[in-house]
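Box 3.1 A note on notation
Throughout this textbook, protein chains are presented in two layers. The first layer is the amino acid sequence; the second is a C-alpha cell string describing backbone geometry. Keep the layers aligned when reading.
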Amino acid sequence: KIISLFLCLVGNGFVLFSSIKYNSVRLDKMSIHIVRSLCVADLCQGLFQCFPKLVSLIAGNRWILGEGLAVVVFSTKGTFLECIYCWCACSLSTRYLAV
C-alpha cells in the first residue's frame, strides 16, 4: 500500500506538472485534457481511498479517522471509479465523433 500510494502521488504529480508547466506532452488539446483529468482522478483515488486505509493499517487495523471520513471512504469506492470511467469513455467517443 505504501509503494502504490507513493507511485500514485509521484507519477501523477509528475505528469500533471510537466503537462501544465512545461507543456511537454505533445498531443492535441482534448487528449491533454483527458490525460490531466485522469491524473487528477487517480490522485483523488489515492488520497481519498488508499491514504485513509493505509493510516488504518498502520494503526493496527483500527479506524482512527472518525465516522465522517469512514462514510466518505467506504461509500464512494464503486461510484467514484464508475463515474470516472464513464466520463472518459464519453470524452473519447465525442472526440472521435467530432473528427
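The chain has a mean pLDDT of 75. The radius of gyration is 16 Å.
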